[in-house]
């Protein structure tokens, strides 16, 4: 399912410095095919969301999502992959920390689909320290939007869209790891019809981190 990333031992320092580590080509071709098939099946029961997130500076959500609690009930593959020992071990190496699975079933593993012109996952921080985002579909050109934008070293959402923020383009099969609770981030709007961006977000935590579902997770995933 996974290729071993290049230079995994450089990752903790990079994560500390910028909050972001690209994992280009993390998924094997076979892994990508399996996950795409699973996501396509689950998309039938996913829900369209169009609203502003009041607790995140009213940033927009225009996307289709499926929460972890539904994924757990409907998928054998995804919960198994989320808890895979080799994956947790890899994340421990990439972070240099004792990462653990998230107890809250809603946020543990979620599916996010941007599929209409203007679709966006607006500015926010996550509830848990680490997000492993796996790309199942992505616009092939950065001009089509769907870029990750994040601001190193700050959780302030008003830094997004300024010169302090950085954008990254990813292809299907790529992944990234983000220090997502303290790094402001968003996904830029899709700029034209006919392009799709589908990710799985696996959340992980650290010992002692609070373990409750927040209002933002409930609004987007329940
Ligand atoms: O889709 C992405 O690249 C980011 C996803 C994200 O920030 C989230 O699910 O909390
Ligand atoms: Fe996030």
Bound molecules: 2-oxoglutaric acid, fe (ii) ion
Which geometry do the CA atoms define? globular
Query: What is the domain tally?
Result: 1
- The helicity comes to 25-40%
CATH class: Mainly Beta
Distance between the termini: 29 Å
Number of helices: 7
SSE map:
Layout: H1 11-18, E1 20-23, H2 29-43, E2 47-53, E3 59-66, H3 68-74, H4 77-82, H5 85-95, E4 100-101, H6 105-108, E5 109-114, E6 120-124, E7 130-137, E8 148-150, E9 166-168, E10 175-179, E11 185-187, E12 197-205, H7 215-221
Plain-language structure description:
By secondary structure, the chain is of the alpha+beta class. It has a single domain (28-221), classed as Sandwich (Jelly Rolls). It has 7 helices and 12 strands. Strands 1, 2, 3, 4, 5, 6, 7, 8, 9, 10, 11 and 12 form a 12-stranded antiparallel β-sheet that branches. The longest helix has 15 residues, at 29-43. The chain is globular, with a radius of gyration of 16 Å. The two termini are 29 Å apart. Residues 110, 112, 121, 126, 131, 133, 148, 185, 187, 199, 201 line the site of 2-oxoglutaric acid.
């Amino acid at each position: 399912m996974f290729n071993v990333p290049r230079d995994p031992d450089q990752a903790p320092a990079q994560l500390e410095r910028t909050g972001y580590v690209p994992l280009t080509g993390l998924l094997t071709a076979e892994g990508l095919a399996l996950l795409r098939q699973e996501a396509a099946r689950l998309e039938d029961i996913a829900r369209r969301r169009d609203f502003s997130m009041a607790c995140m500076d009213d940033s927009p959500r225009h996307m289709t999502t499926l929460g972890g609690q539904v994924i757990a009930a409907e998928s054998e593959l995804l919960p198994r992959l989320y808890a895979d020992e080799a994956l947790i071990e890899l994340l421990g190496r990439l972070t240099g920390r004792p990462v653990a699975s998230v107890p809250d079933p809603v946020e543990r593993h979620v599916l996010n689909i941007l599929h209409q012109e203007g679709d966006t996952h607006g500015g926010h921080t996550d509830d848990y320290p680490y997000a492993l985002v796996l790309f199942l579909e992505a616009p092939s050109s950065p001009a089509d939007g769907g870029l990750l934008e994040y601001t190193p070293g700050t959780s302030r959402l008003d830094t997004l869209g300024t010169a302090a923020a950085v954008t990254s383009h990813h292809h299907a099969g790529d992944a990234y790891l983000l220090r997502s609770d303290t790094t402001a981030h968003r996904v830029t709007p899709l700029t034209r019809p006919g392009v799709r961006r589908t990710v799985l977000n696996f959340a992980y935590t650290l010992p002692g981190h609070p373990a409750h579902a927040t209002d933002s997770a409930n609004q987007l995933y329940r």
